[in-house]
Amino acid sequence: MPHPLFDQHRPMLDRAVEAIRTRGFWTPFPEQPSPKVYGETAQADGKAAYEALLGRDFALDQPGQTGWIAPERSPYGVALDVRYPVCTPQALIDAATVAMPAWRKVGADGRVGICLEIVQRIHQRSFEIAHAVMFTSGQSWGMAFQAGGPHAQDRALEAIAYAWDAMSAVPNEAGWEKPMGKNPPLAMRKHYEITGRGVALVIGCSTFPTWNTYPGLFAALATGNPVIVKPHPNAVLPAAISVRIAREVLAEQGLDPNLVTLAISADPADTQQLATHPAVKSIDFTGGNAFGQWLRQHATQAALYAELAGVNNVLIDSTDDYPAMLKNLAFTLSLYSGQMCTTTQAILVPADGIGTPTGRVGFDQVAADLGATVEQLLASPSTAFALLGAINSEATLARIAQAPQWGRVVLASKRLEHPEFPDAQVHTPVLLACDAADETAYMEERFGPIAFVVKVADTAAGIALSERLVREKGALTVGLYATDDAVIDAMTEATLRAGVALSINLTSGVYVNQSAAFSDYHGTGANPAANASYSDTAFVANRFRVIQRRWHVAPPVAAAA
Amino acid sequence: MPHPLFDQHRPMLDRAVEAIRTRGFWTPFPEQPSPKVYGETAQADGKAAYEALLGRDFALDQPGQTGWIAPERSPYGVALDVRYPVCTPQALIDAATVAMPAWRKVGADGRVGICLEIVQRIHQRSFEIAHAVMFTSGQSWGMAFQAGGPHAQDRALEAIAYAWDAMSAVPNEAGWEKPMGKNPPLAMRKHYEITGRGVALVIGCSTFPTWNTYPGLFAALATGNPVIVKPHPNAVLPAAISVRIAREVLAEQGLDPNLVTLAISADPADTQQLATHPAVKSIDFTGGNAFGQWLRQHATQAALYAELAGVNNVLIDSTDDYPAMLKNLAFTLSLYSGQMCTTTQAILVPADGIGTPTGRVGFDQVAADLGATVEQLLASPSTAFALLGAINSEATLARIAQAPQWGRVVLASKRLEHPEFPDAQVHTPVLLACDAADETAYMEERFGPIAFVVKVADTAAGIALSERLVREKGALTVGLYATDDAVIDAMTEATLRAGVALSINLTSGVYVNQSAAFSDYHGTGANPAANASYSDTAFVANRFRVIQRRWHVAPPVAAAA
Question: What is the pTM of this model?
């Protein structure tokens, strides 16, 4: 079934499919918020569009609305007061169910074309959405633009490309002709139709309200499922704008906008009702282990794609560029005040120190040098505010305060006064040193700007501890610094066994906490930190099913179309 | 990583991949046990090989063996007395876990090549395995050869083709070069390695001990997982021969044969221990709802691919060939005494009868004619024994005895004396008539040769009832007889909503209970009868994960290999 939007976006789709097969660098969405790329007024226009949303009702015209709620509290300490519609879970599910058959009939081409159009419209609103990401998540402006805008759009496009790749492997029809010896062949015509599984629920997080929401949203939508987006109550606006755009595009295409709805409520029971509803067949969840485990136990009617907690770690054996290594690590620890799910928490250093071009550097010295490098990196206020952003939650603020009890303080966290937002919660990282035996300290996720330099007996013990951390606590990222191929090989084997991505000797402009769409799989799905990945075939293939019908025809039959 | 077996079997693999993409007729394994194809002595040799296994220990040299067990009781009433090794679940899991890393290192090519070699060796033993299938499942010889031999091998090859297709979509490595404006680009080399999820458990059924075991076995094995095959205690031998062949091929390749082991025990707790073991990451299960539900609730550490009970149904609105329709249905009801998971149980007929070229035929007449056609089909003893086979289980025998209480008996079941096997339990189908309101009668699976002609108010009510049966009770197959396109369209929509395969107007040599590999998806995964399909991308894609590693290189980097 040809569709104008599919034809229109086909070149981008084809390039995206090529990218997921070859996994080199590619993006259609420039990451720099440059006036040259986006236009001289893009920044001002986006800011104005964002500000026009504040202090008002964010109408979505959804069914079953019972009231309004304004749950957000900005980490920058500014008022948002956007009021979102509260709708009953049953009304959203009923509307989604009603909308689903027409969405199937659009066909894979049409659905993919419409999803690509939604992503394109989201892209055009990057500056507006970036402001919404910044002021809800606490990210700095630059990061909010990149991670919340183009990078999130990349992840959306990537999920759609995988969905298209998997769906297009199924022919629409086939001719089947079985030779029967001397008798005439048996001949049939068969049709294969792709159907979604049912209502999809996408539960977002407060730190990356678009980057962690788009993959599930677009994977589910493209494969034929209506989607209910349940954002984190503290980061609703970026999701709400995205949902509104999706609804607009769907309506323009003569489709039921209730294929994509926003669920927000003051009552956690509403989310539980959605998650366990028999009509809900898939759940994408980014968040903590407690609710993740609850979902696994109670939402057994749905396929769960979950990203949970972990203890990301880096092992240092040796380096050929000690200052560059320290700078790279300091950047990772500082970016968004360590509030990335990919931020390193445990830096494993042998008791007798590490090898460098100028000789061995002892454990205490490595810890001290890393602390000093973080301090130096954040010495300039403009750099500090651009890197750190603000602390996203009260729980993270509390953890920063508690942190000194978990180890010897190498570098204390400081609160910085933001010149523009006096109530912003800006805090520098705290760096602690401890022994590998102090497992209660570093061996659970301490989300936020809290990192440990952990003393391990030697490199082999460090590799073993890294593997155990991944296996038992989960990790999205592991790093290694080593100049010896044997160490690199041993760590490679350990990460293959444990099932985690490994970054080796990052001393340049790529950081262990960064994951580039189309090239880096985000999460492996092979350790407790996530049971799925952005994105791979497994992320999309079970979101749709193939329903066939067949009937006899007179031979000969034509081959598959 | 090139591998000689991969190169050797590459033409067959390429053709299989083409087949799953185009879904026309194809098989490399001739389904007729013809001396011209398989050799003049194949039948005698296969029978002798089978008989040489009887009454003896079936040694497998597996770890943790604590004794021997001979659990099989043949539906043909003959003694088998094959003794299989009982091994502790933990020993099998430990051995599988130890074997796994080397299996990963073989690489996707090598694993696929070795799996294809195993299938080829199994194919060469088709006659021996067919005898084992016949005497354990109760299938007739002809069916045991086709379904237990070439058709099962087709399903194995199909699963391997899907596994290869999904794995080969992941490049082994990539060059990644990100432009940085006026600065030099960031350049990295990335490697992507495919790893299995962990130990796979494949739990077989008693009726199709190879056809329903091979897809999970080969999907899991090809994607990097060691596999523990747990056959039904009454149909061990076909699985045991297959496992032995797999172990032989693995050992020849210098690999640990414990990558494929047989689990058999007198203690059901052993199966539960296997299923819930933390190392077990996937379970393929064909069987009843009770244990299926138990697995879903308790084996939450594993991905479950389950085929469970259902109520397959056929709606008759009208036909342009009444006698051919009756013959087609009678064949379906008779084949293997209705003991196929795809056998029709409920035949929905409007109260005012059906349209035929010679006028309307009333409900009672349709039922009577169908009963008479079954009787006629089975009138010749040679045809009867070739079609019916023997009753697989005591439970099915008991259901046949109970059946008359569930409706008006249109055709009573008869026991037939098998000329060759006097103790064989051969029973003809029982056909009952009832009203749609008699839901307790026909609305749960009555596995075996028990079918209902169900009186529905009209065609629309029949479509609605068919949809409800599929939604609530599940179905692998639905059929329709209708000469009116509007009825076909309405039923098509109903089956798309409910998620079940539809066969339309089968009056020739294809039957609703038949599913051809490479063309017909067996199960949709979209209704309660199965949460997965033989085979599709979803059946394989989540059985492996991709683990990446990356490091900086000097630009420019080469494109992906």
Answer: 0.97
Higher pLDDT, B561 or A497: A497
Contact A22 B492 (CB under 8 A): no
Task: Report residue A454 as tokens.
Answer: 């952990």
The CB density around residue A324, as the number of other CB atoms within 10 Å, is 14
Query: What pLDDT digit, counting tens, does each position of B85-124 carry?
Result: 999 999 999 999 999 999 999 999 999 999 999 999 999 9
CATH code for the part of the protein at B4-308+531-547: 3.40.605.10
- Quick check: A505 and B547 CB within 8 A? no
Contacts of B503 in chain A (CB under 8 A): 549-551
Q: In this structure, are residues B538 and B532 in contact, taking their beta carbons and an 8 Å threshold?
A: yes
Between A558 and B279, the higher pLDDT residue: B279
Closest chain A residue to the Cα of B24, Cα to Cα: A176
CATH architecture label of A313-504: 3-Layer(aba) Sandwich (3.40)
Distance from CA of A396 to the nearest CA of B (A): 30
CA–CA distance, B6 with B9 (Å, rounded to integer): 5
Q: E strand or H helix at B110, and its extent?
A: helix B89-124
> Has residue B561 got a pLDDT over 50?
no
Token pair listed for A249: 């595009």
The predicted structure's pLDDT at residue A108: 98
Of B504, B506, B524, which has the smallest distance from its Cβ to A545's Cβ?
B524
- pLDDT, position A561: 44
Asked if residue A342 lies in contact with residue A310, where contact means CB atoms within 8 angstroms, the answer is no
Determine the pLDDT at residue A556: 78
Contact B504 A549 (CB under 8 A): yes
Span A349-361, average pLDDT: 98
B371-395 burial by CB neighbour count: b if 16+ within 10 A, else e? bebbbebbeeeeebbebbbbbbbee
Q: What is the pLDDT of residues A82-130, one digit of tens each?
A: 999 999 999 999 999 999 999 999 999 999 999 999 999 999 999 999 9
Categorise residue B437: left if φ over 0, alpha if ψ from -120 to 50, beta otherwise.
alpha
According to CATH, the topology of domain A12-176+192-308 is Aldehyde Dehydrogenase; Chain A, domain 1 (3.40.605)
Query: Shortest CA distance to B71 belongs to which of B79, B60, B63?
Result: B79
Minimum CA–CA partner of B180 in chain A:
A509
Domain boundaries, chain B: 4-308+531-547, 313-504
